[in-house]
Amino acid sequence: EKGGTKDSVLESGYYPGVGTGGDQGGLVNAGVAPSSAIEAAAQTAYKEFNDSAVAYLKTQPGATVADIGAATVGFSRGCPAALRFAQLVNERGLTGPGGEVIIPKGQVPITGLALIDPVDRFVKQPMDIPPNVQGQVLSVVAEHEHRSDFRAMSYGADPRVTEVRHPGNHVGVG
Description:
This protein is an alpha/beta fold. The protein is built from four helices and six strands; from the N terminus they run H-H-E-H-E-E-E-E-E-H. Strand 2 (94-95) and strand 3 form a beta hairpin. The model is unreliable at 1-7 (pLDDT under 50).
């Protein structure tokens, strides 16, 4: 279920995490099979973003494609969902209801990305940060998490990423 606030220039949404029921699956998805739930959340977020952006461009006088962008935050396996959303925005751009290209692929910026103790254990999709992510990326990592199933994703080689090590384990960071 989507929640959030809305005004003429900003819209926010929340997407439930892996294992919380519905298209996010149950305990098996939360444990060893998160990929389908991650993909479902990202696809839903992309569709809602695309539809909202198209509606904004149609209804706001003076609106241009330069007004369109997104920011995303994830915790734990929500980070792969946030990354997959950014990848979808990069791969598809913005399209109208008839499939017409409004903003070409690779041209819709993700202007903010925060990954709070990102975990990708058992995730099958590639978790690369796409090129449409602009500016700095914040990655907060649990400094004292030693369980292999909660090993944090690392983006140390990407100059856009600032990694902050936070005292505590996985749950303590979130």
